[in-house]
From TrEMBL:
It comes from the Bacteria. It comes from Oerskovia enterophila. It holds the Pfam family HisKA_3. Gene3D superfamilies: 1.20.5.1930, Histidine kinase-like ATPase, C-terminal domain. GO terms for molecular function: protein histidine kinase activity. Residues 224-289 form the Signal transduction histidine kinase subgroup 3 dimerisation and phosphoacceptor domain. The keyword Protein biosynthesis does not apply. Its EC number is 2.7.13.3. The chain crosses the membrane at residues 21-50, 70-89, 121-154, 174-195. This is histidine kinase. InterPro entries: HATPase_C_sf, Sensor_HK_TwoCompSys, Sig_transdc_His_kin_sub3_dim/P.
Length: 429
């Protein structure tokens, strides 16, 4: 077949030479930040070097080579060797890498394992080694450039002994000074490239840290979703009751002031309870790990009383020792009852509602009210309430049915009484 196929892989275009890219290291702030990073490493390396040189000199002189000196050397060596393995030192190195080398290394959040500590120590050594080389070169280059420039201005030139004889001319000395000065930024860029390539390997999270971070993210997401569901159910229920009561108060304001007053009192009680519940949810959001307030007993009977006060015909039947069920389970039963009553009051106003809570080997709830399919076979619009109930039940290992059943709309949930620790309502920071 002649011609070229559009699906044939094409070679990657070669990078074009750009004079701007060539001179970028001379004007880039990244070069300056990398130079600062190297100088800091060189200064620390110099401190290590002075400590080692001091002990070498002490052992080289017999009068000072005493057992006390040996013990002091062992202690000092141990103290000097420990910092590279410490988690705070690793965290500081990560922050420095992110700030000065522009490498997006994740900030460690947990306690590092042995492998991570050894990799952190290797990075510490690499940082100090390249920093020491940079500082030594800098200390050698700056005096050389000054001597070359000053010699052109008439000062005597101090020949270090390794420069070629061609530097007898002033032009050659100026050219060498400029060449050395221009080489420094490119050397820093080279060292920066080495450090940037090594940083993810030596400072990045290992497999166990990645797994721990993913688990922590999943726990945070689960806790936030739980709080979002609580806000949705609590506020939605309070608003539904308030709207119904406000409508009842408006209808009876002139004909039955007493009924209107009862409706307003119900609005006040519902609003007060909703504000207390919302304040508790916000407290748990601001204070990760805090428990739900003990002031809210999550009583299904209280929900039924509020619904009845709103004019709904609700019957409640409790079977078994419902109040002695685990708190985590009763809270979810409360939320399911709350959302089910809210939906019933909103979509089937005036219809009788039957609530039944049974404690046996598990804790079950059933909310039932008359229901007829929408005309024309229209589908039932689903909001966030039913998915939220399903998430609650799934988190506790239970089962849920929500849908039409024999001319009624039924919500039926069953939750095991033995709740795993993973279902705790704490927010992980």
């Amino acid at each position: 077949m002649s011609g070229s196929s559009p699906d044939r892989a094409r070679p990657a275009p070669r990078p074009r030479f750009s004079p701007r890219a060539l001179v970028a290291p001379l004007t880039s702030g990244a070069t300056v930040r990398a130079g600062v990073f190297l100088v800091v490493g060189g200064v620390v390396a110099g401190a290590y070097g002075l400590l080692g040189a001091g002990f070498v000199q002490m052992f080289a002189e017999p009068p000072t080579a005493t057992p006390t000196t040996v013990v002091l050397a062992i202690v000092a060596t141990t103290l000097a060797a420990v910092p590279p393995f410490l988690a705070p030192v690793r965290a500081v190195e990560v922050l420095a890498v992110r700030t000065l080398l522009d490498v997006d290394v994740p900030v460690p959040s947990g306690r590092p394992g042995p492998a991570a500590r050894w990799r952190g120590a290797a990075w510490f050594a690499l940082h100090l080694l390249l920093g020491l080389v940079a500082v030594v070169v800098l200390l050698a280059v700056v005096p050389l450039v000054l001597d070359l420039v000053l010699s052109v201005l008439g000062a005597p030139f101090v020949d270090p002994g390794w420069l070629p004889g061609v530097l007898e001319g002033e032009a050659a000395r100026i050219a060498l000074a400029l060449l050395v000065l221009l080489a420094l930024p490119y050397a820093v860029v080279g060292a920066r490239a080495v450090l940037r390539s090594a940083a993810p390997l030596l400072l990045g999270p290992d497999q166990s840290e990645r797994i721990a971070e993913l688990e922590a993210q999943a726990a945070r997401l689960t806790a936030r979703n739980r709080l979002a569901r609580d806000v949705h159910d609590g506020v939605g229920h309070a608003l539904t009751i308030t709207v119904l009561q406000a409508a009842a108060a408006t209808r009876t304001l002139e004909t039955d002031p007493r009924a209107s007053r009862r409706a307003l009192e119900a609005i006040e009680e519902t609003g007060r309870h909703a504000l207390a519940e919302l304040d508790d949810l916000l407290r748990r959001l601001r204070d990760p790990g805090s428990e739900a307030s003990a002031e809210h007993d999550d009583d299904v009977a209280m929900l039924v009383r509020h619904a009845r006060a709103a004019g709904a015909h609700v019957t409640l039947r409790l079977v078994g020792e419902v109040g002695r069920a685990p708190l985590t389970v009763t809270r979810e039963i409360y939320r399911i009852a709350q959302e089910s009553l809210t939906n019933a009051l909103r979509h089937a106003p005036g219809a009788p509602i039957h609530v039944r809570v049974v404690r046996a080997d598990d804790l079950r709830i059933e909310v039932r009210h008359p229901w007829s399919p929408p005309p024309g076979g229209a589908s039932v619009r689903r909001g966030r309430g039913l998915p939220g109930m399903q998430e609650r039940v799934t988190a506790l290992g239970g089962t849920l049915f929500a849908g039409p059943d024999g001319g009624a709309w039924v919500v039926r949930a069953s939750l095991p009484l033995g709740v795993p620790e993973a279902a705790s309502d704490e927010v992980t920071p």
